[in-house]
Amino acid sequence: MRTPAREVCPTGAAESSAGQAEPHQYAFDGDIQAPARARLHVREALCSWRMPEDTVDTAVLLASEITTNAVQHTTSPLIQLELLRRDGEVEVAVCDSGPRPARSLQAISEETGDLWDENGRGLDLVRRLASRWGASEAGPGLRVWAAIRATDSDQ
How far apart, in whole angstroms, are the C-alpha atoms of residue 132 and residue 145? Predict the structure, then answer.
């Protein structure tokens, strides 16, 4: 039995993608529902930008991993998500209110655990999927971002 194709972008969700899109910004509670909220917002924004399915799926995964880290490793009552589209890239950024880790995220991302470990692979996934990624101080917390190459699906 064939599995029906899943609808990545709901019908009617697309809008004109001419030029550079305005950034999408969201803020939500830093609770266990935050990654699901991030996935929903990223999917809706990228569909409105007419991004291809693989770009949408990768951006959703990146947002989910970065948001999950913010929830699990900080005490942030609020998570901020920002999506930017410029110069052929989509950038997903998540800001938390800390505390910041003692070591750099780049160093932490290179310490991959066993492939079958339940935890500890999020930043490694970000490092492998993103064309560029990084983190910068944002008040007492961090702004963690990841960029992927993207093109409009109608080009």
Answer: 8
